């Protein structure tokens, strides 16, 4: 089949492997742009990627293994270096050189392999959650352990974490 001559419906059905009844995109987002990345490149990993995320939109980044999707997202978040590219949050350019910069700009990142990269499995729940909220626990040259305990209880409840206590591994 010549893809240029194929009807859109046939292409969709061949991609998903079954007949689709609804192929029209339902728009559930606004024109307000929350995040924009322009001309993102990193060596041979990925080149000139552009994306726009609107308020209310769910944006997926897909590709074959080795296509650079993970490397792009990690660079966007500042976890990996980029050669070029600009990031705009709500229309304002922000400089992201590290995850700390990304977090400060309001970006979050969930790794695709949470067990390997998202948790330190030989450490307890308390330590894993505590590392994510260190900036909220600073007190002078140390940590506010009383606040840490209160926040830990709040996170366990709000995230519905099932555990004996925060010392569970």
From TrEMBL:
PANTHER family: CARBOHYDRATE TRANSPORT ATP-BINDING PROTEIN MG119-RELATED, D-ALLOSE IMPORT ATP-BINDING PROTEIN ALSA-RELATED. GO terms for molecular function: ATP binding; ATP hydrolysis activity. It holds the Pfam family ABC_tran. This is Ribose import ATP-binding protein RbsA. Residues 47-160 form the ABC transporter domain. It comes from human gut metagenome. Keywords: ATP-binding, Cell membrane, Membrane, Nucleotide-binding, Translocase, Transport.
């Amino acid at each position: 089949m010549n893809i240029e001559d194929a009807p859109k419906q046939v292409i969709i059905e061949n991609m998903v492997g079954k007949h689709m009844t609804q192929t029209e995109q339902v728009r559930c987002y606004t024109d307000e742009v929350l995040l924009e990345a322009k001309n993102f490149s990193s060596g041979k990993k990925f080149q000139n990627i552009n994306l726009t995320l609107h308020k209310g939109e769910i944006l997926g980044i897909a590709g074959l293994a080795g296509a650079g999707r993970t490397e792009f997202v990690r660079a966007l978040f500042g976890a990996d270096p980029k050669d070029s590219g600009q990031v705009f949050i709500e229309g304002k350019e922000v400089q992201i050189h590290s995850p700390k910069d990304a977090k400060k700009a309001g970006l979050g990142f969930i790794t695709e392999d949470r067990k390997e990269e998202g948790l330190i499995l030989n450490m307890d729940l308390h330590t894993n959650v505590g590392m994510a909220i260190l900036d909220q626990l600073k007190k002078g040259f140390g940590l506010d352990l009383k606040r840490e305990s209160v926040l830990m209880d709040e996170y366990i409840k709000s995230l519905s974490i099932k555990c004996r206590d925060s010392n569970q591994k």
